[in-house]
């Protein structure tokens, strides 16, 4: 199984959703936090974050992502890191 996350989100209307790409995933959960630890968004498989919070665009800055997945091989995978949002 592969978990790959883009960590730079240039909002240019062609690339305005943060997604995690994976193969052979049976379960998936992703979350986004701001730098104060406030939960901004949660999503499941085949979804993504449109870089908004409560229907409003978020300001430029650093955000934290955490993704957890279970593969079809029943192995748990995870990744965490930061996103740089630039408008």
Descriptive overview:
The chain has one domain: Immunoglobulin-like (Sandwich), CATH 2.60.40.1220. It is mainly beta and 87 residues long. The model has no long low-confidence stretch (mean pLDDT 82). It is 0% helix and 61% strand. It has a 5-stranded mixed β-sheet with strand order 2-10-9-4-5, with no helix packed on it. It has a 3-stranded antiparallel β-sheet with strand order 1-3-6, with no helix packed on it. A two-stranded antiparallel sheet has the order 7-8. The chain is elongated and about 40 Å long. It has no helices and 10 strands.
Weakly predicted, low-confidence segments: none
Instruction: Please trace the helix and strand order, writing H or E for each element.
Output: EEEEEEEEEE
Q: What oligomerization state is this entry in?
A: single chain
CATH fold type: Immunoglobulin-like
- End-to-end CA span: 32 Å
**SS summary, helix count:** 0
**Helix-strand makeup class:** mainly beta
Looking at the overall shape, the CATH architecture is Sandwich
Q: What overall geometry do the principal axes of the alpha carbons give?
A: elongated
Strand content: over 45%
What does the average pLDDT come to?
82
Keywords:
87 residues, mainly beta, Immunoglobulin-like, five-stranded mixed beta sheet, 10 strands
């Amino acid at each position: 199984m592969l978990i790959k996350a883009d960590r730079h989100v240039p909002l240019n209307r062609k690339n305005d959703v943060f997604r995690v790409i994976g193969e052979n995933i049976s379960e998936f959960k992703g979350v986004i936090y701001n730098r104060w630890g406030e939960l901004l968004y949660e999503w499941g498989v085949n979804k993504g974050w449109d870089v908004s919070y409560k229907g409003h665009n978020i300001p430029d800055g650093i955000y934290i992502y955490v993704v957890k997945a279970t593969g079809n091989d029943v192995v748990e995978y995870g990744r965490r890191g930061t996103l740089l949002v630039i408008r």
